[in-house]
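Protein in question reproduced for absentees:

***
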Amino acid sequence: MKLLKPTLIMLCLICAGALGSLRGYGASPKRDLFALKIYHLQTNEQADRLDHYLQQAYLPALHRAGVSKVGVFKQNAQAAGAPAPTEQLVFVLIPCRSAQHYTKLNLGLEQDKAYQTDAQDYLKTAFDNPVYTRFETVLMLAFTGMPTFHLPALKASPAERVYELRSYEGASEALHQNKVAQFNNGEIGIFKRLNFNTVFCGQVIAGGKMPNLMYLSTFENQQDQEAHWQAFKNDAEWKTLSAMPAYAHNMLRMDKYMLHPAAYSEI
């Protein structure tokens, strides 16, 4: 019998744990699983090489494995007067039908001859000339209130668009579940009514920051983003929902990333 490589064994264990988490959260087969890969880069050369890998090798391989759309997002230019970032981040969003689908597509890359050929620079890079500093993977289960990802209905060119990725951590598992319930019981509906063009809402089941949820909203441009959040802040339904004692203290910390889609992004 051919033995699995250690990385594949680890992947199977991670997804097995994810499957257990899905059962614990009352999962349904109709809820997407989102994988968010976050690449950390130091140089523009690394950024160019990663773009080539994603566009020419990784995304085509994911399509062959049954993933219909893949999102690739980069950080927007820094604000005037802000300190220069110490690294570049590239976010790759992979919507999957299930944890089994995610496991299968990753294991299948080693058997995909076209991928093995097209990804040579990425796979065979020298130790002193890496494509990235590191990458992390976050696995998320779609909320019951938004069980699948949505393509944004935007008219602006990808270069003009603003994609806002938010991460909400909770002080405890119970408070985190409470924040998810707040989304399902009203917050998602408000976003939809105010046309936030939300791509996904996901409950983190494996990642470096837990308990945690993440969601991605999209806007035509920076002014549109600011106007939407002002409308949300002043919305009567949101004021009522956020003032309810049942939802008090359910978010401990927020991280926000202002992004734009890569020219070849499909989301």
